[in-house]
Amino acid sequence: MRSSLALRTVALGYLALILILPIGLIFFRTFEDGLGPVWDALTNPDTIHALWLTILITLIAVPANTVFGVAAALMLVRQRFPGRSVLNAVIDLPFALSPVVVGLALILVYGRTGWLGGWLNANGIQVIFALPGMVLATIFVSLPFVVREVVPVLREIGTEQDEAAWTLGASPFATFRRVTLPAIRWGITYGVVLTTARALGEFGAVSVVSGKIAGRTETLTLRVENEFQRFDLVGAYTASVVLAILAFAVVLAMNLFRRETDGDRGAARQQAVR
Amino acid sequence: MTFVCSLIVVAINAVTGTLIAWVLVRDSFRGKAMVNSLIDLPFALPTIVAGLTLLALYGPKGPIGINVAYTRAAIVLALLFVTLPFVVRSVQPVLLELDRDMEEAAASLGASSLSIFRRIVLPNLMPAILSGVALAFARSIGEFGSVILISGNIPFKTEVASVHIFSQIESDDVTGAAAVSVLLLVISFVSLLAIDTFRKWGSKHEE
Prior knowledge:
The structure holds 2 protein chains of 2 kinds.
Chain A: H1 2-30, H2 35-43, H3 45-78, H4 84-96, H5 99-110, H6 117-122, H7 131-141, H8 144-157, H9 160-167, H10 172-201, H11 204-210, H12 220-229, H13 233-273
Helix pairs in contact in A: 1-13, 2-13, 3-7, 3-8, 3-10, 3-12, 5-7, 5-11, 7-11, 8-10, 9-10, 10-13, 12-13
Chain B: H1 2-26, H2 32-38, H3 41-44, H4 47-58, H5 72-97, H6 101-108, H7 113-142, H8 145-151, H9 161-170, H10 174-206
Helix pairs in contact in B: 1-5, 1-7, 4-5, 4-8, 5-7, 5-8, 6-7, 7-10, 9-10
């Protein structure tokens, strides 16, 4: 009994030192000088612009990845085609790859001297150091999440119900909408939550391709760094706290949906047994 | 440099991650559900915020008087923070499903709790630990946001690979940046392959 208590103390102590204390301190430091400076930093037009830009990028990247993710998961689970295992591995790549490398790759393709960049520039479309590049970078780094959440659910539910609907004369679209989609809805939701978290907090890839122009291509994460470099600590802490609150919300949502997904998978398993 | 730090981080993570997973599964105490959700926080928290928070606590003006900013220890610390969830989250489900029968059998045959852990629990957890470790390794090799503030980026001393690439891009040395990037790309690929192998090994164990 005593050894289990010791283990618990060590584990919780480690968590406190590395996780809870730093985050607690950042909240403390932000509000140390009262609410005035925080409010000033929050209402700074550049901060507000950064917040909107972050939300805008997330709003573009998340739906794009959701649609792609569901389609890719369906392909990976239900179809056999040459190169399937390669695709399976490639989808995980953004997860393991350094975001800076992602940014560099985008510059090499879409930059001024890149493969597509020259043509795009000639036609008046700027990708790097502008919004499209930042959206691309965000989509790239948050690509795997929906796929990875939906694939196991699809595996588990199998194809019997789809086939039943099919033999009863439902069109492929109706089958997807009425049978498949309801079954994977929690998997999708969970994936979307993870994608949102990643899109909101992306820093490395976006910082390479954005150019970090305050009030134009500066997202909230980039603002944290810029303010810090300018020794405007309150500004940096305030932007951090906004991001931290968003992160807390995401963790709460994750917990909520994890329970739902587990319930769903349990139900699917029971049906399979029957 | 990046490699050494990542190896240290991964080694610490393998131990603490397994320990935390163990405590979360086998122990019960008040607030366990909350601790369980906290594990995901480094994943959801933007890495730049992670770097800033660590700098606030363990930096020059930190309240506890430990200053590791701009040293290698700082990099290790930042990487530990960011990779915390990986080993915990990959060990936890395996530990949950692990039957206690074997452990009880061993205990009734007189094995000490240490040897039970070493000879019975650990072999079962190994694939999960290793695949978590490989994930954490891939992540720490490429980590950028949390490191950039706290490391100080002193070339040859505290400059990690991803920050190096970044400064090369800023000074328009795209070729040099691409060279280092390719190296990182290869390492990521190898880690992914390793994860895949460990997963297959793990599912074989279950059969």
